[in-house]
Amino acid sequence: MRRLLAGRLLQGLAVLWIVATFTFTLLHLAPGDPYSYHGDRRIAPEILAHWRHVYCLDRPLPAQYGCYLASLARGDLGFSISQSRPVRDILIDYVPRTLELMTLALLLSFAVGIALGVLEARRRGTFADWGSRGIALFFYSMPDFWLALMLALVFAYWLPIFPISGIENVIDAPTFDRWQRMGDHLRHLVLPVTTLVLMMCAGIARFQRAAMLDVIRLEFVVTARAKGVSENVIARHHVLRNALLPIITLAGLTLPMLLGGAVLVELVFSWPGMGYVTATAIGSRDYALVTSSVLVTSALVVVGTIAADLLYALADPRVRAA
Fold this sequence. Notes:
By secondary structure, this protein is mostly helical. Helix content is 78%, strand content 1%.
């Protein structure tokens, strides 16, 4: 187990270095710099030149890359020019909101997806199987931003049931008690979380269905059925427990898709998370904030993948013995 963890950590660090280098290079090779877009024309050129020198923007690209790596080694993520405060403070404000959205969406997606997969496998070839797969495929085929817009149109405009943007009712929130504030926050979560769940649960359901059908054909299931064990007990205690092993790996692979979808979903619903702040930072060419956001997002994917590998090793002794 320790050997597996050490290898995954080294691979994760290599991935983070490649992502940081690639993002840094793309941003700095583009024409201009943050002060070309964010700077006020009334500011004296001498002042702009001074700040370009402070942030190493007046040096060759290899020297800028050296400054960037030195800052990362010190734990300094830089200063956001667009928001006029340290990037670390911005991440402290925005990362928890994205983690909240992702965690709820991930848990609900796997709960709904696994339940649908079990239903489809047990009712294989019936109307319930075809209907469930057809509806799930319909939502899975829709672009995430279009699905978010349609949910906002139906449930926030035509049927004003849920709020359309933000994380709270900014007008009434100061008068709410703790439970009212919590309920208001949950209402703001419904539409973005539902969008992500509908986008992901179809793939999980198909994967779970295939895993269930593979296990159903194995000898120990046939033996249990021959002994007179009920189909419900076979499905819960024999088939499902063994069919869940591949789903652990799928959890790590789902994180990149979830993060990619969260960017557009946060933009549509104005959810103040990492996707929202990264999109606004790209528009203002905020080098420090964009690179740090991409690096944090990549770190979340790496951590999720390592966690999935460790869970799989804990669930399957053959992996630990390899």
